[in-house]
Specification:
This protein has helices at residues 23-30, 38-56, 63-70, 74-102, 104-124, 135-154, 156-164, 170-195, 202-223, 252-261, 270-294, 297-318, 325-340, 342-354, 359-383, 404-424, 430-440, 447-458, and strands at 5-6, 34-35, 386-387, 401-402. The protein is mostly helical and 459 residues long. It folds into two domains: 35-240, MFS general substrate transporter like domains (Growth Hormone, Chain: A, Up-down Bundle), CATH 1.20.1250; 243-427, Up-down Bundle (Growth Hormone, Chain: A). A two-stranded antiparallel ribbon has the order 1-2. α4 runs antiparallel to α15 (359-383). The chain is globular and about 65 Å long. Residues 1-29, 390-399 and 442-459 have low confidence and may be disordered. This is Major facilitator superfamily (MFS) profile domain-containing protein.
């Protein structure tokens, strides 16, 4: 047995309550292994995801100071963040191909190097004592390199979970890796304002973000030695990414998931955004553990989307009332807990309903759908705003525009897509059926059979 492999103790007998199977099939079941180094690979991905998110939103929380230092307008500072959305959409298709053909190791290492160069270019192009006219283009180049790295990193959680983790840990691993991105967003919103009070402190901020990126690149390059373990952790890992993505065009359940879950709206700013992320991470942790144990992907997603829609409606009403900051904070917390926590489970659900199409492809297309729809909704909602003088006072901050109509439209869109998903989305869990077929030679879907058998053998 390989060092670090987790398997039943040597000489363990099979209890009588294990379902009767041919000896060959039981031997095949027990041949699946998991390795302790899967946690290291997951750690590297989490650190990389978090680092890339901090590079993405380095300047947004200190936009005014950054604009003075770079001698540009606030609109140009906004583009330092928007470039991530612009670059991600066309490059996403190539990223899914890389993950499903070239493998996890090459994709992660390339993402780590691009992320590191992005951080370094921003810093080395910014000597505080020299006022170069190329300062802003240099920073934009660094942001663009980080934007190229983003799809290589953010598409990886479902692939890593499928290749390295057993079926009873996949949703949890996906959740941990996926939530590291919003954690990085939260850290950027905390660290940037904390470190930068004047324009001359911008270089210090840039090196603070570049340093961890270099260390993470070292960990990825030296520590990740293979795309997959020597022995697969499950039957589905052996055939991961074996079918072309064109099959998805004929998969009704996947197309509904692509449209409905991809209809995400941009995050809220300031304290609202912080609460949204924090409670979203808490909710994702609880939901990931629950789904790993019960395998109720569809039920969990539908229930959470319904509560998220109700929270969105409440937010659209409460946020427009004066002197209701506590209520707004509470609603944002609920919105994050129920809404944001769905992300990792929905990514796993996309793999289950589209198997044997590659994990990166099925999850990546949903991410692309979300990016495209986010741009459309942001443009629409911005166009629907009115000057504050024409509308009631808003609760969240000193804005000069009324978001009364946009907030109601947002709530309507969220509710509409939630209803569509709840009513029309139905699917088999194709990956778990394939695993049971490979293990027991039966086509009937009984999600708990494999996990219960393994648990019985391990007792």
């Amino acid at each position: 047995m390989e060092d670090g492999a987790e398997a039943p103790p040597e000489g363990q007998t099979v209890p009588s309550n294990v379902p009767k199977t041919p000896n060959e099939e039981l031997k095949k079941l027990l041949s699946f292994k998991v390795y302790k180094r899967r946690w290291f690979v997951l750690l590297v991905l989490c650190l990389l995801n978090c680092s890339n998110a901090t590079l993405w939103l380095t300047f947004a929380p200190v936009a005014d100071v950054s604009a003075k230092y770079l001698n540009v307008t606030l609109e140009e500072i906004d583009w330092l963040s928007l470039v991530y959305m612009v670059v991600a959409i066309p490059l996403s298709f190539g990223t899914t191909w890389m993950l499903d053909t070239l493998g996890l190791r090459i994709t992660l290492i390339l993402g780590a190097w691009l992320n590191m160069f992005g951080g370094l270019v921003r810093f080395f192009g910014e000597p505080a004592e020299l006022q170069f006219t190329i300062k802003y283009p240099t920073v934009m180049l660094g942001q663009t390199l980080g934007a190229i790295a983003q799809p290589l990193i953010i598409f990886t959680p479902t692939k890593l979970a499928a290749l390295w983790f057993p079926d009873h840990q996949r949703a949890t691993a996906n959740m941990i890796a996926s939530m590291s991105n919003p954690l990085g967003i939260l850290l950027a919103n905390i660290i940037s304002p904390m470190m930068v009070k004047t324009p001359t402190q911008i270089p210090t901020l840039l090196i603070a973000y570049a340093g961890p990126a270099c260390f993470i690149c070292f960990l990825a390059t030296v520590g990740i030695r293979s795309s997959s373990p020597p022995t697969p952790p499950s039957a589905s890992a052996e055939s991961s990414g074996s079918e072309p993505f064109v099959q998805l065009l004929r998969n009704k359940a996947y197309l509904i998931l692509l449209l409905c879950f991809g209809s995400g709206i941009a995050d809220f700013a300031g304290i609202c955004g912080a609460l949204f992320i924090v409670f979203g991470i808490v909710g994702a942790g609880a939901l990931g553990l629950y789904v790993d144990k019960t395998k109720k992907f569809t039920e969990a997603t539908k229930i959470n989307m319904c509560f998220a829609a109700l929270s969105c409606i409440a937010f659209s009403v409460v946020s427009l009332m004066p002197h209701q900051k506590v209520a707004v904070a509470a609603v944002c917390s609920l919105f994050g807990f129920f809404g944001f926590s769905i992300y990792s489970v929905a990514m796993e659900l996309s793999v289950e309903c589209s198997y044997p199409v590659g994990e990166a492809t099925s999850a990546g297309l949903i991410f692309i759908s979300g990016q495209v729809q986010s741009i459309l909704y942001m443009t629409l909602l911005q166009a629907l705003t009115k000057r504050l003088a024409d509308s009631p006072l808003s609760t969240c901050g000193g804005v000069v525009l009324s978001w009364k109509v946009p907030m109601l439209v947002m709530a309507g869109l969220f509710s509409f897509f939630t209803c569509c998903f709840v009513i029309f989305f139905h699917t088999r869990y194709r990956r778990m059926e394939a695993e049971e077929q490979a293990t027991y030679g039966t086509k009937e879907s009984s999600v708990s059979t494999v996990s219960e058998s393994v648990a019985s053998v391990e007792k």
